[in-house]
Amino acid sequence: MLIEFICNGKETRVDVPAEMRALDLIRNELLLTGTKCGCSKGECGSCTILVDGDPVCSCLLLAPKLQGKEITTIEYLERTNGELHPIQQAFIEEGAVQCGFCTPGMILSTKALLKKNSAPTVIEIEEGLSGNICRCTGYTKIIKAVQSAALKLQGAEK
Amino acid sequence: MKNKELTQVGRSALKIDGRELVTGKAKFSGDFNFPNLLHGYACRSKLAAGYIKDIDISQAFKIPGVVDVILPKDIPGGNILGILPPYDQPVLAEKEIRYAGESFCLVLGTSVEAAKAGARAVKATIEPIVPILTIDEALAKDARKIHASGNITVSKKLIKGDSTKAFNEADIILEDTFETSNQEHAYMETEAVCAIPSGDDRITVYASCQSPFHIRGHIAANLNVPVAKVKVIQAYTGGSFGGKDDAATEIGSLAAVAAVRQGKPVMICLEREESIVGSTIRHASRIHYRIAAKKDGTITGKEIKILLDGGAYAAESPFVVMKALIHSAGPYIIDNIKVESTAIYTNKTYCGAFRGFGVPQVTFASESMMDELAKKLKMDPLELRRKNALKPGDLNATSQVFQESVGLIETIDKVIDLNRLYKLPSEREERYLYGTGFASMYQGISNGAEGIDVVGASVQAMQDGSALIGIGLTELGQGSRTVFAQIAAEVLGISMDKITIKQVDTDSVHDSGPTVASRSTTVGGMAVYKAAGEVKSSLLKMAALMFKTEENNIILKNNFAQLVFDENAKIPLREVCVAAYWTGFPLMNLSFSKAPEANYDQENTQGNIYVAYNYGTHMMSIRIDKLTGEVKVLKHVAVHDAGKVVNPKAFEGQVEGASLTGFGLAHLEKIQYRDGVIINPNLADYAVPTINDRIPSETISIETYNPTGPYGVKGIGEPPVSGAAASFANAVANATGIRFKKLPITRQDILKSLIKI
Prior knowledge:
The structure holds 2 protein chains of 2 kinds.
Chain A: E1 2-7, E2 10-15, H1 22-29, E3 48-51, E4 54-57, E5 70-72, H2 86-93, H3 103-116, H4 122-129, H5 140-157
Helix pairs in contact in A: 2-5
Chain B: H1 18-22, E1 38-44, E2 50-56, E3 66-70, E4 96-97, E5 103-109, H2 112-121, E6 123-128, H3 135-139, E7 152-160, H4 163-168, E8 172-180, E9 192-197, E10 203-207, H5 212-223, E11 230-234, H6 246-262, E12 266-269, H7 272-277, E13 284-293, E14 299-311, H8 317-327, E15 336-345, H9 359-377, H10 381-388, H11 408-421, E16 432-445, E17 454-461, E18 467-471, H12 480-492, E19 499-501, H13 520-547, E20 554-557, E21 560-563, E22 566-572, H14 573-583, E23 588-594, E24 599-601, E25 606-608, E26 612-625, E27 631-641, H15 648-668, E28 673-674, E29 677-678, E30 697-701, H16 720-736, E31 742-743, H17 747-756
Parallel strand pairs in B: 1-12, 8-31, 10-11, 14-15, 18-19, 27-30
Antiparallel strand pairs in B: 1-5, 2-4, 2-6, 3-5, 7-15, 8-13, 9-10, 9-12, 13-14, 16-26, 17-18, 17-23, 20-21, 21-22, 24-25, 26-27, 28-29
Helix pairs in contact in B: 5-6, 8-9, 9-16, 12-13, 13-14, 15-16
């Protein structure tokens, strides 16, 4: 079936099988492989994308459900001039990236969180990222990165 | 190698591969897309044990998109898997199924869905046999033999002094038995490979792996081609922790066989369930521990029997057995030790390397016993550890002596200080129990008893003043690329932004063995240090000619060659590089770092084994909810002597991550079997710590100077797992007054025990 949606700011029209997962559409058809597949069951959050600004496990979402929506994947965060998004910068600076496989999902969940709550408490950060598993870092540096990103974004607004 | 005025080593340089990881540009094995790509999906046994009578693949070919089915007979070479002798594992099971999840054929399809549907259509007739599921069943007198050699994979002894005499003369003897459960690596990226045949009879395999050279060797053996025909490239790898060795070799070999057969690229990406049931996990263990001591707390003897449940195949059991053996007595001065360490076959998922490699299991037993001894002697647990702790010049369990870089006492003293300052909440609520636990540990750095330890590294300076580093060790998230770049930058005086680390490509780097044993920074770092040093000597020689002075008047710093006595007199390194090139001074070097070979009595495991040890002491304070059993970690401090720390932030990252894995092992994670089948092979039922489970780890490093590592470094990747797990167990015992003898100690276990009281 033909679906139309906005993917990373671009109007996108694709013909997809009704049973195709959004994750497979994004990775295999749109070739946006920054979105990762970690479990296919919505348990790890590696496949997180933003749908109308909300974090969603794209492995649990059927592609046709994207009809009329606006989605963001990790590839859309870097500015066209090559400058990293403040959240991306914060993740590198705080040592919140080790193997990096969970990182795209973590960063997108962070983006959704900070959009709703520009100065989250630690508990609110935990809530916001509780759907994203990281096996490498122990999470402490991820929390620091979110706090640092929040400050950077607040600074940018002023 | 004097450590004065270091500019790159010792600072928290940003991760050099961070940018591609935060932007999603880094290509992991499953991210490749080649024309005509085929996908492989394995048929796996649902039974734990059985004889394969028939495999009917005819129905699979009726599924649209199914292209081929690979059976054991289709593997041109040895159908062999297994990194070490006894090489007892097939890539595809041919006659006998030895664990639930073992693969016996591979279906190729034009899509993952087609291959998977094809695999479901394969009809296997497997005659069930009664599986052997426990250590006791395997060791029973008339037990069926899982392998022709029997059910004992390997058994080793460590004997020092006369333990019988020590126990006869002891004031106090304590003994107990401890158990630990299997643990799943649960790296976020499952195992994945992509094999591409080329016209020149070669095959290239991109792999998510930690040992590209193991994979290369096995692909050649299974394809029956010379090793030189095979090229393995490590793609970005989404975590490994010891796990992406055996199974990566299995699917690497299968993908290569399939790709050559079809003349098309073949990708195999394990699903999460396959990654749990069909790939190694941490050995479950049962450890019988006896300790003999004097009234004053001097430990005079230990007798330890370690049984490791290794599952269906040997995999890395022979090495895990050794590591558990060597570390089981703990980091203490003990004159009389007798240890027996044995791995056993059972009809379960095979076990292999997992961060810590046998040390977390034995440390849990050892440190639980230390606390029990302290209690019996009415001694402070930290004082007891301090009294027996290894110092420079002491003989450790294998009678190896280190004159330097034994910082255990300093780690204990640091914890004593911190514990004195730290007060558990003074207004304690009735509903909660509070407690603090400690654990000291050590962990050998380098391959040690596991064989030769050699790393090759190349350093190439370019005429624009940049540098390219190649090394055969893999970046798995631990930050080794950044550490190697820092070492090269330090030696060459080139800034980090001008340094590039090659992807590991077996064509272009020397076989450096597997990325294991917390050895990268020490042994790998030394190879980079040496290679960079050779290039540096060319640059100094050239700069001396250009300055018309002696080489020792010149230093390389901030991308310049400059005079020691006049820092304004400087020449850009790029000009020195150009001149060196045109003068004919080599700008590239391949150097080797070979760790001093282990030299020991194989019968009793006495002698020199490792190039260094990491020493650590952990403290963990917890609060237990008496009504629910819920545990909250209030404080966790990990103090380690890891030698000189190259990158403090990356170091903290290793300690924090490894500690949470140790906490998972001790409290949350448990592989559950029913009739030999893993019943929780997913991330919902198997509890990998989430952000809500994180512990507030504080990292403290006691820097000693290790002469076998560049700039005095050691390693930190694995050791905190043991410290965190063992200190948790002791904290629970301290809080509840109950000694739990089995890991994990779950919330349910705690609650059940509290209700009994």
